[in-house]
Amino acid sequence: MNDMTKTETPDDKALVADAEAAVATVAKAREAIGKIIFGQETVVENALITILAGGHGLLVGVPGLAKTKLVETFGTVLGLSANRIQFTPDLMPSDILGSEILDEDSKGKRSFRFVKGPIFSQLLMADEINRASPRTQSALLQSMQEYHVTIAGERHDLPAPFHVLATQNPLEQEGTYPLPEAQLDRFLLQIDVPYPSADAERRILLETTGAGNAKAEAAMTVEELMKIQDLVRRMPVGESVVEAILKLVRSARPGEDNPLDTAKHIAWGPGPRASQSLMLTVRARALLDGRLAPSVDDVLALAEPVLQHRMALNFGARAEGLTVRSVISDLKQAAA
């Protein structure tokens, strides 16, 4: 029996009903964000995809492009409790995770009490994450993977859901500690934040420098968001999409098994986590677009944000003037 003649089951009907309700809720949230963040439609889309897929995002852009405003707006619109940490070289792990303090009661009895750090929020903005020391970066990134912290041998679970949107300035590298490749892999997407268009910048000038500015309003609750995140994992993915994901990710790795000519330019490539990231994000992108199943076009659209921080070129490729983006563009054409 082929897909065209397959009888729809009650589970299928429930999935379709859940998806249609989720599409309406997500559209409402996207509209609410668009009233605050102008001219960054792709950035907003990719950040929403990151949250709906249940992951963490790395926002890369120069100062003044509303990255902080974006995270604040997301917290309000999606109904998440949000905190912000400004990363600096002297920031310690305890400044993020929390620490134990010694308390003394009225009878003179002393005991330790754990004071939670700012990481105990549902949406954490890690501002300029590459300015903190590797020790502090590791403390955050370990928590991003394990969703709990351990202080003095005691485990403390982070709130659910828990998402990190970290920012990084691509220009000023003096006094920074670049994230190692293994830690970059913790981020579901790298979201590049470009300059706004002329029309968008005009709107920014007119709407943000007056006596009153628009304020973000909640468009969903935490419970609704978690249901949508669960729905994303239940959405069906066609065999053609699975094959496109496998072909794209495996072609981004060096080695003799890669038949493409571009393989000679790659020093190291993405692991299976990149394939997992694509499987989740293409579903979230389809839902964001009002569709009940992803397509190969979703795979191609998300190839760059999923792969660019998970691969590097060798010296010969860099000497020829090639970039990771240009190589990914070639890989997309081969996978299309």
From TrEMBL:
UniProt-listed SUPFAM superfamilies: P-loop containing nucleoside triphosphate hydrolases
UniProt protein name: AAA family ATPase
Coiled coil (UniProt feature): none
Domain ATPase AAA-3: from-to ranges: 56-189
Residue ranges constituting the ChlI/MoxR AAA lid domain according to the UniProt record: 263-329
InterPro entries attached to this UniProt entry: ATPase_AAA-3, CbbQ/NirQ/NorQ/GpvN, ChlI/MoxR_AAA_lid, P-loop_NTPase
